[in-house]
Amino acid sequence: MNTTYFLNCVAGNLFHTKESPTIPAQYYIGLSSSTPAIDGSGVNEPSTDAGYQRLLLTNLSEPVDGLVSNEQDINFDESTANWGTITHYVIYDSPTADDGNLLMFGELSTPRSVETATIMTIKSGYLKLLVQNPA
């Protein structure tokens, strides 16, 4: 799912009707234990005190019918405390937790309880990104 902010950013830059803010040069993936909203609110990321940090999103496939996916596993750092039950991935334009603009988000196929000493992984090919929202 794409946020309204991101859709407006892409459309404005694509059609040269509003080119500020620019489309981000880098994207950062994170995790949420709550369901984000299309307006960018509702994200609940784990605490950075528990070993959590967003990761630079790299190793994405070329688009096929508008769909891009991860070509390698995405491995978050090992948790140093409980992160709770993670239900969603989130993509931001900032590497800093609780900062930046939420651009995209999606529900994980299976919620994951992340306890101390757990490495959260999004397997290769599981992340599916489209710059449109389902009808």
Question: Could you describe the 3D structure shown?
Answer:
It contains 1 helix and 8 strands. The strands form 3 sheets. Strands 2-1-5-6 form a 4-stranded antiparallel β-sheet. The protein has a two-stranded antiparallel ribbon with strand order 3-8. It has a two-stranded antiparallel ribbon with strand order 4-7. It is globular, with a radius of gyration of 15 Å. It starts with a helix and ends in a 5-residue tail after the last strand. The mean pLDDT is 95.
Describe the structure in brief.
With 135 residues, the protein is mainly beta.
Topology, please?
Layout: H1 4-14, E1 28-32, E2 55-56, E3 67-69, E4 74-75, E5 84-92, E6 102-114, E7 121-122, E8 128-130
Antiparallel strand pairs: 1-2, 1-5, 3-8, 4-7, 5-6
